[in-house]
Amino acid sequence: MALRGVWQLQKLIVSYCNWGGSSRGIREFMESQLPAFKEKNPQLEVINELNRGHHPFLKGLYKNKNERVVCVKNMTPEEVHQCATRLRNALGRKVVKLKTRHVTKHPSVQGGRGGDASIGSTIGLKEEEEEVSMVVVVVVVGGCSKATPPYSAAILLIFRYRKRRI
């Protein structure tokens, strides 16, 4: 893919074995479809590499010094062509695992959804000889309106439940 009008893939290395059965598809691709692929992509340097006794692969070298390797073992010539096209269209960036499911540039002012202040969370459980006491904290957050000051109000309600032992 072109980033600001510049193709990012500089070099495509086609590695294959001349007698292995897993390289049959890539050898057919090199005979039939690779010359047309080279003509359509003159900005791309395509290198054929004989690698005897190993499975075939395509390696893309990008302008940002990254490389991607795709195994094309036992693939048809059409599938190999599709893999080469995907390498050409990629930007060459590393895949980054996201820390959260939702990524935003402007996080919420009110904070994320946490288990500490959620409704119904228990603060403590105190056992006595004759009764069990539990404290439940409920946090109610009010929003801002034109009639209220420009800040949110938080109200803390504490309920105490008692259950007698029978």
UniProtKB/TrEMBL annotation:
Coiled coil: none annotated. The keyword Mitochondrion applies. It comes from the Eukaryota. InterPro entries: Ribosomal_mL43, Ribosomal_mL43/mS25/NADH_DH, Thioredoxin-like_sf. Pfam families: L51_S25_CI-B8. One of its GO terms (molecular function) is structural constituent of ribosome. GO terms for cellular component: mitochondrial large ribosomal subunit. It is found in: Mitochondrion. Keywords: Mitochondrion, Ribonucleoprotein, Ribosomal protein. The keyword tRNA processing does not apply. One of its GO terms (biological process) is mitochondrial translation. Its main location: mitochondrion. Residues 18-91 form the Ribosomal protein/NADH dehydrogenase domain. Belongs to the mitochondrion-specific ribosomal protein mL43 family. This is Large ribosomal subunit protein mL43. It comes from Fraxinus pennsylvanica.
